[in-house]
Give the backbone structure.
Amino acid sequence: MATIAKPASLSMLGSFQSELDSDAQYSDDDNDILYNTGTAVAHRREADEPDADLALINRKFSTQVSLSGAAPIDQDALDIKSIAAALKSEVSEYNIRAAAVIRKHMCLKDVDKAAKDVMSINIALETMKSYLVDPSSSSDLLYQTEWAITNMCAGSTDTTSVIVNAGFIEPLASLLTHEDGAVRVQAAWALGNICGDNEQFRNLVLETKRALYDILHIWHGDFKRQQDRPLAMEIAAWAASNMFRYKGLDWDAVSQIPQVVYQILCETRNPQVLLECAWALQRIFKVKPEDFKLVDAEFCKTLNNILAHLLDEYKHAVDSDLEHDDYGQLIAAFLKIFANITSKDDPLELQMVLDSGLPYLLSGCLNIANNRIIRGEALVVVENILAGTPAQVDEVIRRQEGMIKSLLVIISGLGVQKGYKCQRLDAFSAMHNIVVKKNFDHINILVQQSAVEMLCLFMQALISPTPPSHDPMVLIQVIDTIYTIMLVGDAHSEQGGRSFLTEISGMRSHDAFFIFQAAHYALPALLARDRHKQSDDTSQRDTKGVNAESLKRKAQRRLGALMERVCRSEYDAWYTKELGQCVNEFGGMQVDNDAV
């Protein structure tokens, strides 16, 4: 049912252009840049939705396993004449037999073809609907009929439309409070498939009296088999998730859903139920209006406790060489909830997340190097947390030094498996949220943990193979991050404090060479792209209010000042000459070699 999304690539690069734009108006004096970087901000992002194909699968599903233990029907093709006669019979056993044959046929792989076969029996749908509204219908007859309808609604929109237009929503909704738990669950299952088809059908279900409330509470009441109660919880959470799949939602009508899903979370540790609850909650927090406050300290603590339990189970399974993929999916799903909560600029909610103890668990998640999904989702949450207030970032950095070490190790590529390079981009994005605040104490912690050297290893990977396949903006962003570290140290030293000049100028010569190579590739590509946006009149500004000359001056100034501190080797003159040629070729500018 639920599926796990692929981690996204670096999300914050798009706004770097705005930082360049805003800075272009200021003085060329390097000492002014630290306080004149304009709109550079920390970045947050939401958890990713599933790929389109996976999301399509997740919105509907059919059932081939009987809740009531009904015997299988050994018949592959429909005998239309016999089934029609059995459907019309006044003998209940014949009705049940006919409904069971139709149900079995609807379990075939091609749902739409099977549905057409059933609909070719002229009286089939009308008779099946009459079973659902007849008070004398047995639980077995209701169950077999609902099962067939459920699988029809798991097909295409055309097939589901036939069921909706035939008036099945209200009869199904009336069975949500049936005394038989299997009947309640199957009714909710069918309605969940209808809701998952499109916005219009979902709204029809929501407009049906008490339908939503009763769907959410099908797990209450008696079940002939107690093992069926977890399935009822699973279907309730899955149907709730489908309510938030489409836009145009009346939030007042669905305000009860988060609390019920939370109640289900508190009732069970069944893995499949937890997974559906997690998907429901991550969708809720992705689309909820800002004025709907759903997060409190107890809620965050509960989520954190569940995540801790899942991480323990995952570690035990790995250590015991047992199957652990299901736990990996569960952990990622709960991390998605935290990602969507922390993606909002709400310091109070973020503080409740921090107080729950989540940063400690995130440090552990970052060290799970052999599971791309867990580490990828954890990096999204870390990025959002490090976009918090200075006090919140300080709390994380000082209490969770292991998290910062893990980020830097991932950025460097050490311990990152082949094919997981997007994790290095995500880790850099999280670290950028620390640097962009320009807090000396925080940046000092990064520098003491070899952040500059790790960034050079990152650049080495970005410019290899040749030509680089990454967006040049990534390289510019990395260079600018090192540059910001340098300027924060310079400003601190002017006030009698410590500078980072030793760390930066003391880098090995091949580290300096990688910075130069990155600049040599990225600067021309960036300038060429900007030049393409400009008109023939270089003084004409684009929609962001910046011209090519301003951009080139900004790039020249930053790269030149950085290279001055980095290039402390016998190749100084060569670096200067090549960098000057690089800038001049793409703008006709004269580089001030003395400044470089």
